[in-house]
Structures are given as structure tokens and as C-alpha cells.
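BUG: 3D viewer hangs when loading the predicted structure for this chain

Environment: internal workstation, default settings.
Expected: structure renders.
Actual: progress bar stalls at 90%.

Input used:
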Amino acid sequence: MLPPPRRFLALIALATIGLAFSGCANLATTRTGFLGNYDQLAPSASDKHRLDYTRPHWPQNDYPRVLLEPTIVRLGAKDTAKITPAESAELAAFCDAALKKAFATDRTVAAVADQGTLRIRGAVTGVDTSSPTLNVVTGLLLWPLDNGGVSLEFEVLDGASSDQLLALVAYSEGTPLQVISSFSRFGHAHSGIERWIAQLRKGVDAASKPPPPKPTEPPAATAPTGGV
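C-alpha cells produced before the viewer hung:
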């Protein structure tokens, strides 16, 4: 029988191996019914973690105001069992704050959705937590292995017509390289929320830029004239 110190290290090693196979977040893009339309979503050619849709050019100057609807948490039964109601409310509040930071700096915050208003809706649709305690232990031997993550759904609507201008369905899974996030129960989820809201804002900015001007064709050459 191994002496206590070695027995402890052996147990830690077994736990580390087990977490190496089971510690990854198990998340995916979702279709919870939160969005008004999923039919237009398409996979991203550059990122397997997202589906998105952008309506063709819509001028940013047409939308000087923004209405940020409160984020909702719409989890399946398995994910609901992982967190408390208070933690669910905290996730929603974190998402609300990140949306406000991203969109309310250069637009007037509106109280109602009307002409000239972007209406932004968001939902947390999947979550996986990290275990700070386990990550401290595994981090001493190798690196933090119990990774969390988050799945999200967003849409940007015309405030007057409720037409969908942009939609984003995405998820993030934490990695051991996100060391600081590994030592917080929702560290990886928070990082994922910030990442995808930044991508949402980037999508709004890109969609509302005017299309580049068409290149002008050079005038046709004329045949020289003159007598011989």
C-alpha cells in the first residue's frame, strides 16, 4: 500500500487524467425558439462556434437610438440543474452590462422601440461551470482542466417594424490557456459573453457601413483620325 503522501499524489493524478477526458465544456449552438427567425442563419466559414445572419446593407445613421431588452436565461433541464436562481440572475445581469458597454456608448438609450431604434435581444441558452477548487489542484500538477462555457442567442431588430437585421447564435468553451477564468465558477462563461457581444457589435458596425463604390471603367479608346 502506498504511503499517505504518495497515495494522495496518485489520487490527484487519477483525478487529473479523468478531468482531461471529462473536463471540457459540452456546449453547442442552440435553437430554443427565442429568436424570431432561425431560417436565415448560416454557418460561419471561419468559426464553427457560430451561426449568423445579416440583412443586406442598412445605414447606421438610420438608427441613432438603441433599446436593450433585459437578457433572459433559457436553459435546458440539464443546465438548469447546474446553477442556482441567483446565479442565473447574475449571468443575465452580466450580459446586460456587457451589452450596455458595447452599444450604449455612441447611441441614445431608448425606452421604447420606435422608428430609428435598434432593438437588441439576448438570451443565455447554455452554460457549463468551472470548479475553482479542482482547477487549483490540477493546475499544480499540470494546468487547469475543468473548463466552463456558455451558449448564447442574439438578434438585432428594427425598432419600428421588428424586422430582423442581424442574428447571432454562438457558443464558447473555455481552455486551460484562460488561466484567470479557470479559477472562477463562471469565469469562462463571462469570457464567452464578452467575446460574442463584441462580435455582435462588430457585425452591426460592418453591416451598417455603406457598400464600397463600384469601380469606374476607363473611357473607351477612340481610333485615331486623320488623312494620309
